[in-house]
């Protein structure tokens, strides 16, 4: 008996010792296999391609930025939080000078230290074509995200100074795009980005373990990640490009993946019927018609713009989309911290729409005829053909006849860049283009700023208004975050009150997942935190 | 025979040049900017111009073609705009996967097609013939991507017997001759085989039926030749045409069906082509089309030479 007790005690001691010595990964829970909509593994070197999905799965997983988005809550809009920079401030005497205090003790996956010199090296990678680490591929993705940056210098290992071209309080939002790759890793790979792509190194919560182009990428936890709350619980995350929606759904239904991005709306009943969860949330993305404000455009009349906005039956459109949408009440989603209190109520009121059109000189005998540029598909465009046909019908019901000019998505991007005055748009007075509206610049300023009129920028409709210009200036020169939010609210109120766009709906980023996926919190953001996820047995 | 071979090889050259010019120009005719896929949608004009210059897309088309083809003949098809990886590597890997799929589909399609066709031709106008013809017409008529989706729903989703996508379970991207990998091959190969089964069966049926009604067959019987020996003559007479049809179908299988490879996420040339089209990845698109077109030309050449070897009359024409 004594011998047996001794044996049990010894076994228990061995087990406890083994447990204590077990690395974190042994506590981790399973493998998550993700079916992405991308047709290839996003660029792995740092600044990713493949749009928001690239940043979501290969950007903020393997890499960090100086300033990051808080992705921990599903209930409120995401805000900026410290990342590799713990604090930042602007010089009150010279508002073009910013100082960033960097996080101490952060290491890249290859073991090298993260320092201010590294940030300078990374910015040169994107902005200085003469530097030896300049990478045209990453530059193409990152340079336009930081238009404010004029120069930068490392004051010491943990202090960075950035100078902007003009005072620009949106700099923190811009820097949230920029991901930090390891200089030491680049040097260890013969200073070749092609080689780095195979074995990249960031400071992020995930490490890229292996990678087969167009097939799969395997990410494992960075067990020494600086933010202990974001050390991944999973053993592994596998990313698979599955661009075809039916193939994605079949892969999920047959158990080959656990999570798919953007299930097609018509597959959702089959998925929910088979016990899969559909997770969605409001996020900063809209589906609008950007209106031409060139001379002669019917959209120059505010009554016409308001009438069109009142003609759309958004609830009916929601039924078409299986409920996976948020009806637009403005340009930003109603839950946005910058929504404000606009006085124009964007709702379905066809009688009011008809009255406004009559006031503007249109009626059953004299319908308003407009031409709209649309595409049959495209990144983030939801279901553009049926949705546009629905809008066309709604507008026809109040007396606005819409003629479509349908072009392929890549051509659509070109026509969007070209602007409403370009002959290639063949006189179209609107363009159906969905917008990423996560930060002040990409969300609001770039669409309507006078200095960004196409083709110099992305103000497609050639809108230019001194009052709006003043608001944009205030956004850029208001350095107190709360005060800046107030200006942003005023700006958005003007967007809505003057019905500057045909505001139709917001996407809700639906994703379908196996009931085994636990702990995922879908932030109101384009990016997500995968560290909290585990897989049930 | 040797002269014929040399003549056929010489014919291949202008065809290959024509094909290369055609596929180079074809992708330039389509609207849109090939750099769209890799630039942020709001890239400035300067950034767009810099990228265009970096990829040589600002040069006149004939100059672009001359640069491209001079590198292509040395095996350098440029780098993919979307990924930066060498196109030749991407295409060869995809072609290898498509070859694998084509081989599997051939193993299914040709024996079944030939067998069914011969059976229908031999028993012409019987219930056999009608049943096989119905099967063959169905095979040709059913959209194969639809059939692929149906097979996925039944065998992957409902029964859970076979995987619905990819070329293997592992993360290495390498093919292996084991059950785990071969399971991935079954559904796409069966789907891909359906059309060739129908076409080959219908062609062989018509051929065999026609040959049996020819005078020389009656003459052979009249001379007292045994049935199996007559059959041998029929097969020999049918072979050149059958080979030609099979050759064309081989080209179809090698090119991979874009839709089938997309439905099954099979990383072959068809899938690569569809990705290249969606991304407007010009070098990848041109390289893939060129390699596939050359495969068609080569398959035709092989078939022509094989036909000539079987049927001496062909050499004289």
Number of helices, where a helix is a run of at least 4 consecutive DSSP H or I residues of chain A: 17
Q: From the coordinates shown, what is the CATH architecture of the domain at 89-280 in chain B?
A: Orthogonal Bundle
Superfamily (CATH H level) name of the domain at 89-280 in chain B: MetI-like
Structural class designation of chain B: mainly alpha
User: Count of DSSP E strands of chain B?
Assistant: 0
Determine the fraction of residues in helical runs of chain B and give it as a percent range.
Answer: over 70%
Overall shape of chain A: it is globular
Instruction: Indicate the radius of gyration of chain A in whole angstroms.
Output: 25 Å
- Physical arrangement of strands within the biggest beta sheet of chain A: 8-9-10-1-11-19-12
Order of helices and strands of chain B: HHHHHHHHHHHHH
Assembly category: heterodimer
Helix % of chain A is 25-40%
Taking the alpha carbons of the first and last residues of chain A, their distance comes to: 37 Å
What overall geometry of chain B do the principal axes of the alpha carbons give?
Answer: globular
- The low-confidence runs of chain B, each spanning 5 or more residues with pLDDT under 50, are none
Q: Which sheet architecture does the biggest sheet of chain A show?
A: 7 strands, mixed
Structural class of chain A: alpha+beta
Tally of DSSP helical segments of chain B: 13
- Biggest sheet record of chain B: none
Q: What is the mean pLDDT of chain B?
A: 84
Question: Which secondary structure elements does this structure contain, and how are they paired or packed?
Answer:
The complex is a heterodimer of chains A (537) and B (317).
Chain A lengths: L1 H20 L9 E6 L14 H9 L7 E3 L10 E3 L2 E6 L6 E6 L13 H12 L8 H7 L6 E8 L2 E6 L6 H5 L7 H6 L4 H6 L7 E7 L3 E6 L14 E6 L3 H9 L5 E3 L6 H6 L3 E3 L5 E7 L10 H10 L2 H7 L5 E2 L22 H10 L8 E7 L9 H15 L1 E7 L2 H10 L11 E7 L3 H9 L17 H12 L3 H17 L3 E6 L4 E3 L3 E2 L15 E2 L2
Parallel strand pairs in A: 1-10, 1-11, 15-16, 15-17
Antiparallel strand pairs in A: 2-3, 4-5, 5-7, 6-7, 8-9, 9-10, 11-19, 12-19, 13-17, 13-18, 14-18, 20-21
Chain B lengths: L1 H28 L15 H10 L6 H12 L14 H36 L4 H15 L2 H15 L20 H34 L2 H8 L4 H29 L2 H6 L5 H11 L2 H29 L2 H4 L1
Helix pairs in contact in B: 1-12, 4-5, 4-7, 4-9, 4-11, 4-12, 5-7, 6-7, 7-9, 9-12, 11-12
């Amino acid at each position: 008996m004594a011998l047996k007790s001794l044996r049990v005690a010894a076994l228990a001691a061995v087990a406890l010792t083994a447990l204590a010595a077990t690395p974190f990964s042994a506590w981790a829970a399973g493998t998550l296999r993700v079916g992405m909509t991308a047709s290839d593994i996003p660029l792995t070197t740092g600044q990713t391609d493949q749009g928001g999905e690239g940043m979501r799965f290969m950007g903020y997983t393997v890499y960090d930025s100086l300033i990051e988005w808080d992705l921990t809550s599903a209930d409120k809009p995401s805000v900026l939080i410290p990342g590799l920079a713990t604090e930042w401030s602007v010089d009150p005497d010279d508002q073009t000078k910013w100082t960033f205090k960097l996080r101490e003790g952060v290491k890249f996956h290859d073991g090298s230290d993260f320092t201010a010199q590294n940030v300078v090296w990374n910015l040169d990678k994107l902005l200085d074509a003469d530097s030896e680490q300049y990478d045209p591929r990453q530059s193409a993705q990152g340079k336009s995200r930081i238009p404010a940056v004029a120069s930068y210098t490392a004051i010491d290992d943990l202090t960075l100074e950035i100078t902007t071209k003009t005072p620009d309080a949106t700099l923190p939002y811009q820097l949230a795009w920029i991901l930090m790759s390891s200089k030491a890793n680049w040097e260890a790979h013969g200073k070749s980005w092609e080689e780095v792509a195979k074995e990249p190194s960031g400071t992020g919560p995930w490490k890229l373990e292996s990678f087969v182009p167009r097939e799969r990428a395997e990410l494992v936890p960075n067990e020494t990640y600086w933010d202990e709350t974001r050390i991944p619980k999973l053993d592994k995350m596998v990313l698979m490009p599955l661009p075809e929606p039916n193939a994605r759904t079949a892969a999920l239904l047959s158990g080959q993946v656990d999570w798919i991005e953007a299930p097609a709306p018509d597959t959702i009943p089959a998925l929910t019927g088979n016990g899969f969860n559909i997770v969605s949330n409001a996020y900063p993305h809209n589906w609008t018609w950007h209106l031409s404000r060139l001379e002669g455009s019917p959209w120059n009349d505010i009554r016409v713009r308001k009438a069109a906005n009142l003609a759309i039956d958004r609830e009916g459109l929601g039924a078409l989309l299986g409920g996976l949408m948020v009806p637009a009440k403005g340009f930003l989603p109603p839950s946005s911290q910058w929504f404000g209190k606009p006085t124009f109520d964007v709702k379905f009121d066809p009688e009011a729409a008809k009255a406004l059109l009559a006031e503007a000189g249109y009626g059953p005998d004299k319908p308003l005829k407009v031409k709209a540029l649309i595409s049959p598909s495209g990144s983030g465009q939801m279901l553009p053909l049926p949705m546009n046909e629905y809008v066309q019908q709604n507008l026809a019901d109040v007396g606005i006849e819409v003629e479509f000019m349908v072009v392929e998505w890549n051509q659509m991007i070109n026509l969007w860049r070209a602007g409403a005055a370009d002959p290639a748009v063949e006189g179209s007075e609107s363009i159906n283009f969905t917008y990423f509206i996560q930060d002040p610049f990409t969300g609001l300023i770039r669409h309507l700023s006078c200095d960004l009129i196409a083709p110099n920028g992305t103000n497609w409709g050639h809108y230019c208004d001194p009052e709006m210009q003043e608001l944009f200036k205030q956004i850029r020169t208001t350095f107190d975050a709360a005060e800046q939010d107030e200006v942003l609210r005023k700006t958005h109120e003007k967007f809505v009150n003057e019905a500057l766009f045909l505001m139709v709906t917001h996407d809700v980023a639906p994703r379908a997942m196996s009931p085994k996926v636990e702990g995922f919190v879908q932030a109101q953001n384009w990016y997500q935190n995968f560290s909290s996820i585990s897989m049930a047995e | 025979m040797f002269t014929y071979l040399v003549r056929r090889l010489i014919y291949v050259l202008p065809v290959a040049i024509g094909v290369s010019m055609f596929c180079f120009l074809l992708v330039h005719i389509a609207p849109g900017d090939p750099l769209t896929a890799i630039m942020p949608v709001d890239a400035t004009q300067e950034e767009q111009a810099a990228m265009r210059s970096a990829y040589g897309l600002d040069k006149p088309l004939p100059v672009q073609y001359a640069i491209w083809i001079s590198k292509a003949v040395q095996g350098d098809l440029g780098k993919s705009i979307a990924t930066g990886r060498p196109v030749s590597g991407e295409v060869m890997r995809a072609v290898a996967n498509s070859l694998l799929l084509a081989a599997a589909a051939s193993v299914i399609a040709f024996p079944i097609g030939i067998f069914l066709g011969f059976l229908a031709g031999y028993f012409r106008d019987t219930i056999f013939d009608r049943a096989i013809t119905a099967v063959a017409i169905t095979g040709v008529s059913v959209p194969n991507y639809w059939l692929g989706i149906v097979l996925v729903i039944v065998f992957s989703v409902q029964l859970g017997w076979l995987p619905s996508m990819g070329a293997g379970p592992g993360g290495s991207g390498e093919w292996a001759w084991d059950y785990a990998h071969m399971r991935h091959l079954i559904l796409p190969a069966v789907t891909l085989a359906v059309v060739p089964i129908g076409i080959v069966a219908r062609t062989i049926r018509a051929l065999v039926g026609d040959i049996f009604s020819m005078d020389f067959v009656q003459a052979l019987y009249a001379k007292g030749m045994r049935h199996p020996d007559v059959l041998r003559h029929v097969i020999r007479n049918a072979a050149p045409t059958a080979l030609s049809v099979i050759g064309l179908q081989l080209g179809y299988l090698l090119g991979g069906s874009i839709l089938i490879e997309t439905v099954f996420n099979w990383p072959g040339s068809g899938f690569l082509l569809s990705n290249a089209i969606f991304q407007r990845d010009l070098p990848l698109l041109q390289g893939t089309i060129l390699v596939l077109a050359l495969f068609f030309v080569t398959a035709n050449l092989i078939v022509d030479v094989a036909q000539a070897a079987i049927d001496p009359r062909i050499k004289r024409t």
